[in-house]
Amino acid sequence: MNLNIKSAYLFLLVSFAALRTNAQVIPIGFLDFDGHARSLQLLNRLDSNISFFVRPSNYGLGFDKSVKMGWKMGEAWTGMDATMPTTTKYYFDDGKGIFMVLPTTLRSKFNSHHPFGWNDEAMKAAKGLQSALSGGFFTQYGPFSIQVQPEYYHGSNPEFEFNSAYGAKTTGAYSNFLPGNSSVLVHAGAMAAGFSTQAIWFGPGQYSSLILSNNATSFPHLSFHTTRPLCTPLGTFEWQLIAGTLDEDSASGGLYENRHLKPAVLKEDSRYYNAVNISFQPRFLKNVFIGAARAFQIYSGDLQSLETDFFNKYLVVLNPGFKKSTLQDEGNRGDQQFSIFTRWLFPKSHAEFYFEYGQNDHKANFRDLAINVQAGAAYLVGFKKVIPLKQSRFIELNGEMIQMAQSPDYLLRNTGNWYEHGQMSQGMTNDRQIIGAGSGFGNNVQSIKVNWVNGIQKIGIIAQRIQHDPIGFRGQSALLLGKSPWNELCYGVNARYAYKNLIASLELQYTSSKNYAWEAGNRKSNLYSLLNLAYIW
Q1: How many Å apart are CA 487 and CA 470, to the nearest integer?
Q2: Is 90 helix (H, G, I), strand (E, B) or coil?
């Protein structure tokens, strides 16, 4: 074998042998276990190679081995705490196959005055009570796994206060039955490929993501991804490459999040969505992660009319960065987003710092990027600090800021707010919901949380400030429309408690709106609650 073949063989050998294959994952946002896992990592109780850039992940929270007794059960999650309820896991065919009943969960969200809250998948931006019930099973035999976890949604969706700038009449109560976090995958070591409807999160954010999050209804997609960090001589890698379909679901009658919850008559055509997320932890920088993500969308009808090869048609995100793709040639309507991010760990201080910078305006070259770096840009910055106490107790300090409104240079080059640029009238949405940061179109948000944690139990306080589209309703027309700045201050508490096999988490926030819906002097208050219940079988 020559050197190149030997290198390729070594790479594949490391790839397939480095990590185990157990592929059942914790869904994004499940009882805030994402945040709990990050704290465990900062306490040196979880694999330091995990970037948290590619989610969902099992975070290495596998199951303890026990004596084989035919169908075996009663294995507890490691890395959490003794208070973590045990789950039942059955083995069959001499341990070659696994079957698990997934947790049964009930989520309920309530708003007293106007829509608030995000990262809730198919729940609408709505007033009133909404609930989601899910459950299912996971099974794996050899390299094949099936996860079936459908969800049922129901909401009252009553009318809320609106004006000419924000909101509209609603269509009333709704019900949806969706495939939820389901998948059919083939595994090879640390990698997997297949079909999925699971919610996806790109980037380092704790509360928001510029490109992909669990804010919108999850969409069907093909995926090729790592299930755990892939160890190589250069360092560790994680990635996810997806190709899926975004839809408008016009029959639902929902309001558009990127239209300030206004209805719109848009092109009724599904959109092909192609995205990739890659992260790398250099071996010589053990506690530093760097990553990049890129996404394209194009109307399905326009995609079918393209006359090009398979790679340029369906894997356009792998084209060079400044190359104008066939999806953006004259006559085709295509949009893209790009972001770079980093996460730095400080193990001795039990802390982390992270940053993400994104562009939704295609740059012609590096010179264009350098001159107009703020045009079409958004960014996210945050930190997490853990203060260990006695035994399994600790204090969490969490902070994050996301900036999605245009910078002041929009007066020279108006590229629209984040999620708006381009010829795609829906923007980066699915079922009329923004697939990235869901706090609101063009909004800036500052969040801080302080939690006291004891094992799986926690209690803490929340404070947030939200600037609603500070550049103004539809940008430069703000002064003409006579709008006043709409800012919200939010204060609340959150808690999580486990009793035997039942886990409950609760978040309560009181929101005070100044100039609600950009209407001068219009002060309103809202009470928001989110209750999660999960029964571990």
Answers
A1: 9
A2: strand
d(CA 127, CA 112): 6
* C-alpha closest to that of 179 among 219, 138, 150, 222: 150
pLDDT tens sequence across 250-302: 655 678 898 889 888 777 788 999 999 999 999 998 899 999 999 999 988 88
Among 484, 389, 351, 462, residue whose Cα is nearest residue 39: 351
Report pLDDT digits (tens) over 193-219: 999 999 999 999 999 999 999 999 999
Nearest of 274, 265, 266 to residue 245 by alpha carbon = 274
**Residue-by-residue DSSP string for 344-411:** EEEGGGTEEEEEEEEE-S--SSHHHHHHTTTTTEEEEEEEEEEEE-STTEEEEEEEEEEE-SPPGGGG
How many residues are listed for the chain in this entry?
A: 537
Contacts of 277 (CB under 8 A, 6+ apart): 53, 54, 202, 203, 211, 212, 239, 240, 241, 291, 292, 293
Are residues 295 and 275 in contact, defined by beta-carbon separation less than 8 angstroms?
A: yes
Which tokens in the block code for residue 534?
């999960």
Give φ, ψ of 394 to 5 degrees: -160, 165
Phi/psi zone of residue 507: left (φ > 0), alpha (ψ -120 to 50 degrees), beta? beta
Burial of 311 (0-12, 13-18, 19+ CB in 10 A): exposed
Instruction: Name which of 69, 63, 105, 67 is nearest 88 in CA terms.
Output: 63
User: In this predicted model, what pLDDT tens digit does every residue of 365-412 receive, in sequence order?
Assistant: 666 666 666 777 899 999 999 999 988 899 999 999 999 988 776 666
CA distance 232 to 280: 10
**Residue 442 corresponds to which tokens in the numbers above?**
């063009």
The strand pairing partners of 101, in sequence order, are: 137
Q: Which two tokens stand for residue 142?
A: 């050899």
Reduced to 3 states (helix: H, G, I; strand: E, B; else coil), residue 311 is helix
Range 160-171 burial, b when 16+ CB lie within 10 A, else e: bebeebbbbebe
CA angle, 470 as apex, 464 and 476 as ends, to 5°?
170
Q: Residue 393: beta bridge partners?
A: 454
Residues with Cβ < 8 Å from 46, sequence gap 6 or more?
A: 37, 40, 59, 60, 61, 79
CA distance 50 to 61: 12
Q: Is 5 helix (H, G, I), strand (E, B) or coil?
A: helix
Residue 219 makes CB contacts below 8 A (sequence gap 6+) with 197, 244, 245, 246, 247, 273, 430, 435
HEC-encoded secondary structure of 120-146: CCCCCCCCEEEEEEEEEEEEEECCEEE
Residues in contact with 411: Cβ distance below 8 Å, sequence separation at least 6, in sequence order: 476
Largest CA distance in the chain: 76
